[in-house]
Design goal:
The protein is of the alpha+beta class and 128 residues long. Helix content is 40%, strand content 24%. Helix 1 crosses helix 2 (82-125).
Length: 128
C-alpha cells in the first residue's frame, strides 16, 4: 500500500528498535506498516504479526492516514516529532545495508555462474 511498501522491504519483519516498534505486515492488497512509540524503558509486548503492541501506553505515530483499510489505504505520519528524524535515519541505513547485501549476493551468484561455466568447459575440453 502507498507509504508502506518501501519500509516493509527495508525492515522485512516486525521488530523493536530503541523505543520504536515497527509492525511489518500485509493483507490481500499489499503491505502494511505501522510505527509505535513505546513508553521509556519498556520492551514491546507483541500482539500478533499485524497488530499493535500490547503496551497500553504505546502511541501509533505512523500508519494508515486515509483511504479504506484493506483496500485503498495510504500510510503516513500521524504525529510528528524527533522519532521521524530517528526513523528516517534508520531507514536510510537499513536501505543502504540491504542494497549492499543484494550487491554481494549478485556478485556471489555471478562468480558461481562463471565457475560452473568453467567446469563445463573443462569437462567438455577433456572429451576426445
Amino acid at each position: 500500500m502507498k507509504g508502506a511498501d518501501e519500509y516493509c522491504k527495508a525492515f522485512k519483519r516486525t521488530q523493536q528498535i530503541g523505543r520504536l516498534y515497527l509492525v511489518v505486515s500485509s493483507h490481500a492488497r499489499g503491505d502494511t506498516f505501522n510505527i509505535y512509540v513505546l513508553p521509556e524503558g519498556e520492551e514491546a509486548k507483541p500482539n500478533g504479526s499485524c497488530n499493535p503492541p500490547l503496551n497500553k501506553d504505546a502511541v501509533e505515530v505512523y500508519g494508515a492516514v486515509s483511504g479504506q483499510r484493506g483496500w485503498t489505504e495510504t500510510y503516513g505520519w500521524k504525529h510528528h516529532g524527533k522519532w521521524v528524524d530517528d526513523f528516517n535515519e534508520m531507514y536510510e541505513e537499513r536501505k543502504a545495508q540491504n542494497e549492499e547485501e543484494a550487491l554481494k549476493y549478485k556478485i556471489s551468484a555471478a562468480e558461481k555462474e562463471v565457475s560452473a561455466e568453467d567446469n563445463v568447459s573443462r569437462l567438455l575440453g577433456t572429451y576426445s
